[in-house]
From TrEMBL, chain A:
It is found in: Cell membrane. CDD domains: TM_PBP2 (cd06261). Keywords: Cell membrane, Membrane, Transmembrane, Transmembrane helix, Transport. The keyword Transport applies. This is Cellobiose transport system permease protein.
Automatic annotation (TrEMBL), chain B:
This is Carbohydrate ABC transporter membrane protein 1, CUT1 family (TC 3.A.1.1.-). Keywords: Cell membrane, Membrane, Transmembrane, Transmembrane helix, Transport. It comes from the Bacteria. It comes from Gracilibacillus ureilyticus. The chain crosses the membrane at residues 27-53, 87-109, 121-142, 162-181, 224-244, 279-300. The lineage of its organism: Bacteria, Bacillati, Bacillota, Bacilli, Bacillales. CDD domains: TM_PBP2. Belongs to the binding-protein-dependent transport system permease family. Pfam families: BPD_transp_1.
Length: 281, 306
């Protein structure tokens, strides 16, 4: 009898937990689904009561309208260029610096490492205006360099790489290579790099997502349409006087889908990377 | 004898030069960060503090004006509106986010739950979408018209349509909802990692001692999770104080008072009004507010649950 009530209690709490998770999952996915619904419907179907809840047939029309309103492919291309180049640059520079901090001895090492950590505490808006002035003095406005070069500064990346290299690249290997007369760069390239591929993957995902989604800085330094990243270009969709919601959400949908697909394919790696980074720092 | 001495000397010298070489390599390998940071990080920060005391529109001569910019900003009603908006949306967006994050993490961590990885992926997915896309989608959902999705849903429950993007609370609730939706899953996964790190033996021991579920949560879960709670409160506070994309997309170029935030105010002063002095003063004030709030955060978080 009492055993039965206990098992009843367990199944009720279990039901409650399932209900909670199902509702949370539904609310998490619904806006994405709805974006797709809108992207395939005519504006009038969206602006009626009740609005459309199932996909319509305007997929191609809406996307054609997007392409006629903004330079969608150009903006995607720009976003890919800045994200890929900045990410590769950060992987190289941060692993090199992390390697130096982890395996080399030099004066002021601890102080310099501490200084790097301190820079992580400064809110990026503090230097925003002078940064803009510097970029305009360098004549980098409307130039993707304005995003890529400052994007190479990544204190977290150096911290992350140092921690990983310290605990995963054996000192014996480094010493042995030194005895064999390997140059310092060869030791980094041939011994450290192959071992730290997982750390590269994590940092790459964090950095790529960050640059891809960045909005404030590109908005300030990229003023001409030909240099827009996709985030800045998307904003152009809602700036029209006539609001065609089908077209607008078609643009946001197709700009979001690639990242979602990559996420679904590599979800374990993504979730681990994006949260581990936060916890470890 | 002499020969061995010289070999020793050369050995010593070569090992010394090895060390110097290593140090030089070290400095070279870390130098890109410091060079780039000096140009695009440190110098701008120092220059911001300088600009805060100047009158300048970006083109003509600078003119030293003392504390004028700070006085101007602090006596500007819209600045105070932007600050109170930011703080209200911080509370509205952050607290539910962390609360639901903990609850969902607890649910995901419960034993005997099937399809865990599906739930995890679904709940985390909003974080992978871009802020601009989120703001646009939610902006259309929180349309003030009768056919706006949220108004339609409210209509099912007999609630009259709300003019979301023009009312004092409407704008704030809409923007906070965007922030909430994008970040709740992220925090859930972080809490989940924290929960999974708590050794099961603790719960088993408590079980043997006859602890109730509430006691287990109060005396094991919360204290063990404290560092992670501090971390999330800290990061979401800093993020909330820097809120920019969602309000800019939602209220547009009008910079409506109902939704203007401190960073939006800064952006408007600098890049629409070209008043670089007051904008820099606002940036410095924001920096000070962030420092104060972060310290309070750490202080409070350290005391709670002790």
């Amino acid at each position: 009898m009492s055993e039965k009530t206990v098992s009843n209690k367990v199944s009720i709490s279990k039901l409650f937990v399932y209900a909670l998770l199902v509702i949370a999952s539904f609310l998490s996915i619904f806006p994405l689904y709805w974006m797709f619904v809108m992207a395939t419907n005519h504006n009038s179907a969206i602006n009626s009561v009740p609005p459309a809840f199932i996909p319509g047939s305007e997929l191609v029309t809406n996307f054609t309208n997007v392409i006629n309103t903004i330079d969608f492919w150009g903006a995607i291309g720009n976003s890919l260029i800045v994200s890929v180049v900045a990410t590769l640059g950060v992987l190289f520079l941060c692993s090199l610096a992390g390697f130096a901090f982890a395996k080399f001895e030099f004066k002021g090492k601890n102080f310099l490492f501490f200084a790097i950590l301190i820079t992580m505490m400064i809110p990026p808006q503090l230097g925003l205006i002078p940064q803009y002035i510097i970029i305009s003095k360098l004549d980098w406005l409307n130039d993707l360099k304005a995003i890529i070069i400052p994007g190479l500064i990544d204190a977290f990346g150096i911290f992350w790489m140092r921690q990983y290299i310290s605990s995963n690249v054996p000192n014996e290997l480094v010493d042995a290579a030194k005895v064999d007369g390997c140059s310092n760069f060869r030791i980094y390239w041939n011994i450290a790099v192959p071992v730290i591929i997982p750390a590269f993957a994590t940092l790459a995902i964090i950095k790529f997502m960050y640059i891809w989604n960045d909005f404030l800085w590109p908005l300030i330094v990229l003023r001409e349409e030909s240099s827009f990243t996709i985030q800045v270009a998307l904003r152009g969709l809602i700036d029209n006087y006539v609001r065609d919601n089908g077209m607008i959400l078609s643009g946001t949908f197709w700009a979001t889908v690639p990242l979602i697909i990559v996420f679904l394919l590599l979800n374990r790696l993504f979730i681990q990377s994006l949260t581990e980074g936060a916890v470890k720092s | 004898m002499a020969k061995t001495e010289t070999t020793l000397k050369t050995a010593k010298r070569s090992s010394l030069s090895e060390r110097t070489k290593e140090a030089i390599s070290g400095y070279i390998y870390i130098s890109p960060f410091f060079v780039l940071f000096a140009i695009f990080g440190l110098f701008p920060i120092i220059f911001s503090f300088y600009l805060g005391f100047q009158k300048w529109n970006g083109l003509g001569e600078m003119e030293f004006v003392g504390l004028q910019n700070f006085k101007w900003v602090l006596s500007d009603e819209i600045f105070w509106t932007s600050l109170s908006n930011t703080l209200i949306m911080w509370v509205l967006g952050t607290i539910p986010q962390l609360l639901f994050g903990i609850i969902l993490a607890y649910a995901l961590n419960a034993a005997l739950i099937k399809m865990k990885s599906f739930f995890r992926v679904a709940i985390f997915m909003p974080y992978v979408t871009s802020t601009v896309a989120v703001a646009i989608v939610f902006g259309i959902m929180f349309n003030s018209q009768d056919f706006g999705l949220i108004n339609v849903i409210l209509g099912w429950f007999g609630v009259d349509p709300i003019s979301w993007n023009t009312s004092w609370w409407g704008v704030k609730i809409a923007i906070s909802t965007m922030v909430f939706w994008r970040w709740v899953g992220y925090n859930t996964i972080i809490y989940l990692a924290g929960l999974q790190a708590i050794p099961n033996e603790l719960y088993e021991a408590a079980q043997i001692d006859g602890a109730t579920i509430r006691q287990k949560i109060q005396y094991i879960t919360i204290p063990m999770l404290r560092p992670i709670i501090i971390l999330t409160v800290f990061t979401s506070t800093i993020g909330a104080l820097q809120l920019f994309t969602e309000p800019l997309i939602y209220i547009g170029r009008s910079f409506r008072e109902e939704g203007i935030t401190v960073v939006l105010y800064l952006y408007r002063e600098a890049f629409t009004n070209l008043s670089f002095g007051p904008a820099s003063a606002a940036a410095i004030i924001l920096f000070i507010i962030i420092i104060i709030l972060s310290s309070i955060n750490v202080f409070v978080a350290n005391r709670i649950g002790r």
